[in-house]
Amino acid sequence: SGRFYAWRFISGKKCSEVKRCNDWIGASSMSIDLYGAEWCRDCRRSKALLDSLNVKYNYIDVEADESASEKVIAINGGMRSIPVIVFEDGTHLTEPSDPDLKAKLESLSII
């Protein structure tokens, strides 16, 4: 999938397979990528919600990373709508409301 994951050490065991790591340390460590821009109010709102729920995520600034901007456009069928929040299970949300984002996190047992 073009992603690289750092080796994790959990209980003295090296884990290179993300799914297995998540089984060991719980779904709350699931990888979430949030594509956004600092000027975007919806991006700031989604970041604030994730922060308030203590959900870890990778913030990717589409203004600073051209390849990230291209990925957003590909995900959205040609539109550069942000935020785009991509979950480790391959699903994504574009411009989600807070209730929709929270429901997604609950459905994935992240919160």
Mean pLDDT: 82
By DSSP, the count of extended strands is 6
Number of helices: 4
Radius of gyration: 14 Å
Q: Structural class, please?
A: alpha+beta
The largest pleated sheet is described as: 4 strands, mixed
Q: pLDDT below 50 for ≥5 consecutive residues: which ranges?
A: 1-28
* Structural shape: globular
Helix fraction bin:
25-40%
Strand-and-helix sequence, N→C?
Answer: EEHEHEHEEH
The largest beta-sheet arranges its strands as 4-3-5-6
Measured distance between first and last alpha carbons: 25 Å
Strand-residue proportion: 15-25%
Could you characterize what this model shows?
The protein has helices spanning 18-25, 41-52, 66-75, 98-107, and strands at residues 8-10, 13-15, 32-36, 58-61, 84-87, 92-94. The chain has 111 residues and is of the alpha+beta class. The longest helix has 12 residues, at 41-52. It is 36% helix and 20% strand. Residues 1-28 have low confidence and may be disordered. The protein is built from four helices and six strands; from the N terminus they run ββαβαβαββα. It is globular. The strands form two sheets. A four-stranded mixed beta sheet has the order 4-3-5-6, sandwiched between helices. Strands 1-2 form a two-stranded antiparallel ribbon.
